[in-house]
Design brief:
With 420 residues, this protein is α/β, with parallel strands linked by helices. The protein has 13 helices and 21 strands. α1 packs across α8. Bound molecules: ligand PMT.
């Protein structure tokens, strides 16, 4: 499938569902109100969304709001007279690349499990050969009921429908337990992965570093660098939007839905990265890590002395990516960045080899419009298979999207290798 990206609020976002039609079946539960966000998410990823409402769903969400958000007519009635001669349930069945029932109540789950076709929603699902995803949402006791469990098992094991497990939490009725519909972002990413969309990083654990480390000299001063963290944060946002399980180790404080571990020094960054590395599928180090730190950190502010000169003894910091490059598993991917002020290509390719990286993203930090602190970057991507790709100046998020595309292809290659 063609790779594509769209500019939203001046940011490039992942559009993996372009040319895909998703028919969203909405049954009558309180979680139906979340469908509006779900439709927006799927449309944001490029999908064409058609909604089919069960009779009871009308009580929770209106056809008017659904048609406005989906920008398509909403389907509710099996027996409506319309322009096309084809029965509506057959037309919908053929239209769908994928059917998503969200929320799926105990009632619709029971009907689908037993082939009952008493409305448009149940009839078109039975008439379709498309993949079906079911996102249950109901009271915890109803979800736990043996009848529901049995019906879900029929859907999953006999009909090969994919069940998107509900989450634990407080229900609209006040009860606490499993039954809350899965998060919209998770549902959207499961849809992308089920359609085997190119570029999806669904369920990949990706560890990213951002910002510049600060190495204290005394309680007031430190050795630092000009990294703002923008490149690393753009990288983490892009991977997260593609369904990755992202952890960001950052020297810059940011509020995000994924875990952000705040660190200051190279040694703190090393500790956090090492503790997450074993379970990650990819490590992307955009952080500018200080190569040296003061040998001694003064407890008190260093006073000006009579002498004109002041000497600070430095000691080497661990090279985090280098150490991890030596112990990485075959199926782990390590991507480094190279900040260069001269000999961009040769310096970067030496680092790629020396540090045993899969990719290195080289940027020239002497150009003010790109690199440190700016919203844009221009890079050369060198790969351990000898490939070289030049990306001209563009937003850091667009660079990050490109790196995500390469990463997704690498994961596919690893998967194919392990299958053979
Ligand atoms: O944060 P921004 O303002 O958006 O700027 C982005 C950036 C310029 C910082 C970024 O694009 C970039 O180039 N990051 C890498 C900076 C750097 O430290 O490059 P390096 O060539 O010194 O290091 C090469 C690689 O080794 C890097 O992936 C680095 O994270 C890693 N390294 C370096 C030293 C060290 N002690 N440990 C490391 O792991």
């Amino acid at each position: 499938m063609k790779k594509s990206k769209k500019l939203v609020n001046n940011q490039v976002s992942f559009q993996g569902l372009e040319n895909k039609t998703i028919v969203l079946g909405i049954s009558g539960g309180i979680a139906a109100y979340k469908c509006l966000d779900l439709i927006s998410s799927l449309r944001g990823m490029g999908a064409n969304v058609h909604c089919v409402l069960s009779h009871n769903a009308h009580e929770f969400v209106t056809p008017l709001s659904l048609s406005t958000i989906s920008r398509n007519k909403v389907h509710t009635n099996n027996f409506e007279i319309k322009d096309s001669w084809q029965p509506e349930h057959i037309e919908l069945a053929k239209l769908a690349d994928l059917i998503l029932i969200a929320p799926a109540t105990a009632d619709i789950i029971a009907k689908l499990a037993h082939g009952i076709c008493d409305d448009l929603l149940t009839t078109f699902v039975l008439a379709s050969k498309a993949k079906v995803l079911i996102a249950p949402a109901m009271n915890p006791n109803m979800y736990d009921h043996p009848a529901t469990k049995h019906n879900l098992s029929i859907l999953e094991h006999k009909l090969r429908y994919q069940i998107i497990a509900p989450e634990f939490g407080e229900m609209a009725c006040g009860d606490i337990g499993y039954g809350k519909m899965a998060q919209i972002s998770s549902i959207a990413q499961i849809v992308a992965s089920r359609l085997e969309v190119h570029g999806s990083l669904f369920e990949k654990k990706i560890l990213i570093t951002a910002g510049g480390t600060r190495e204290p000299i005394d309680p007031v001063r430190f050795i630092g660098n000009r990294s703002s963290g923008k490149m690393g944060i753009a990288m983490a946002d892009a991977a997260y939007a593609r369904g990755a399980d992202v952890t960001l180790v950052s020297t810059v404080k940011v509020e995000r839905s994924y875990p952000v571990i705040l660190v200051e020094t190279a040694q703190e960054m090393q500790e956090s990265v090492e503790s997450e590395f074993d379970t990650c599928d990819a490590l992307i180090m955009t952080a500018a890590v200080a190569d040296f730190r003061p040998l001694f950190v003064s407890v008190h502010k260093i006073k000006k002395s009579d002498s004109e000169d002041f000497t600070l003894d430095l000691t080497q910091n661990p090279d985090i990516i280098d150490l991890l490059g030596r112990v990485k598993r075959e199926n782990q991917i390590i991507i480094g960045f190279a900040a260069e002020s001269e000999e961009l290509l040769s310096n970067a390719s030496q680092k790629l080899k020396r540090k045993k990286l899969d990719l290195i993203i080289a940027n020239d930090i002497t150009v003010p419009e790109i690199g440190f602190g700016s919203d844009d970057n221009a890079v050369i991507i060198l790969s351990n298979d000898g490939n070289k790709e030049t990306l001209p100046r563009m937003p850091k998020r667009a660079i990050a999207e490109h790196i995500c595309d390469i990463l997704a292809s690498r994961f596919l290659e690893i998967k194919e290798l392990t299958l053979h």
